[in-house]
Amino acid sequence: MVRIRYMTGSGEATGGFSSLEVAATTVGAALRALTEQHPELARLIWAGKDTLNPMIAVFLNDQQVEASQLNTAVKPGDEIDLLAAVSGG
């Protein structure tokens, strides 16, 4: 299983980081599994059917994964972190 950690919205009951374990062989498959289990996260993670939202940063074992690298292999015990981009000035 791969653990995915993601920030929940401050207004959601869980607050802060949440995590979920999914069975997957790639980063993209893990993200799809996450959004199948939590459809409310789909609009935050995906900008289109297979297009990662540019406002989300994806990390696999503390290494950033670019949108073009969603086919990166994962193995049991790997950790994926999802962070929303911060903007402002």
What's the main sheet like?
A: 5 strands, mixed
Count every helix, treating DSSP H or I runs of 4 or more residues as helices. 2
Please identify the structural class as seen in this structure: alpha+beta
The N- and C-terminal alpha carbons lie at a distance of: 39 Å
Mean pLDDT: 87
What is the ordering of alpha helices and beta strands? EEHHEEE
Helix fraction, binned, reads 10-25%
| Beta-strand content estimate | 25-35%
Question: Secondary-structure map with pairings?
Answer:
Layout: E1 2-7, E2 17-22, H1 27-37, H2 42-45, E3 56-60, E4 63-65, E5 79-84
Parallel strand pairs: 1-5
Antiparallel strand pairs: 1-2, 3-4, 3-5
Entry summary:
The protein has helices at 27-37, 42-45; strands at 2-7, 17-22, 56-60, 63-65, 79-84. With 89 residues, it is of the alpha+beta class.
Question: Can you describe what's shown?
Answer:
This protein is α+β, with helices and mostly antiparallel strands and 89 residues long. The chain has one domain: Roll (Ubiquitin-like (UB roll)). Helices cover 17% and strands 29% of the residues. Strands 2-1-5-3-4 form a five-stranded mixed β-sheet. The termini are far apart.
